[in-house]
Amino acid sequence: xxxxxxxxxxxxxxxxxxxxxxxxxxxxxxxxxxxxxxxxxxxxxxxxxxxxxxxxxxxxxxxxxxxxxxxxxxxxxxxxxxxxxxxxxxxxxxxxxxxxxxxxxxxxxxxxxxxxxxxxxxxxxxxxxxxxxxxxxxxxxxxxxxxxxxxxxxxxxxxxxxxxxxxxxxxxxxxxxxxxxxxxxxxxxxxxxxxxxxxxxxxxxxxxxxxxxxxxxxxxxxxxxxxxxxxxxxxxxxxxxxxxxxxx
Length: 248
Fold this sequence. Notes:
Elements: E1 3-6, H1 17-26, E2 31-34, H2 42-52, E3 55-60, H3 63-68, H4 70-80, E4 84-87, H5 99-118, E5 122-126, H6 141-146, E6 152-157, H7 158-163, H8 168-174, E7 179-184, E8 186-187, E9 199-200, H9 209-218, E10 223-226, H10 234-247
Parallel strand pairs: 1-10, 2-3, 3-4, 4-5, 5-6, 6-7, 7-10
Antiparallel strand pairs: 8-9
């Protein structure tokens, strides 16, 4: 059974959070995905989710939080009832690494995830486009990150994969046994939606969601997280994107 979640980062420019959660619940969302800016008071965050009738089944946590305050990371995840914690990115100044650097980073990531795994949760990495940079060999950064440990799961962002010039289906096939969720994100036709950084509501861009959905289902990948990095109207994005997924 497919579950549809919503990455709350999409709504960071539309406070307050309780209004966002109410809006999402009204559109039929049952699950949300948290992000690092929301974890200052996990008890209050859980209360807001409970009041809206949604669960935070997954969450993004920065690498610094996991490395510097692992106890807080575990407590937050447990308080929210998360099943998986994903590291969403590293800063632009940290991304210019060679193959050896990415290989070392994969091992660093695996070490940072041990407290999460020891707590009985899944742990992994969420990609952008920089993980597909050509390093001059057969392996790309995403391969070297995944090689850090078999315990590193992946939350494959299909939109960023496509924007990097890669075929999402090929990468779904490559890591099907490691993918525990996908970010469902659409790309606007060239030259459109410049005010939204070139992203589009799901089903209103260039991605072939019927084909992608069919392929994901064939691989047993059924946890979809809707995301738009910079919507001008988060209710419009959530509503139209949910309508698209329900129609598949």
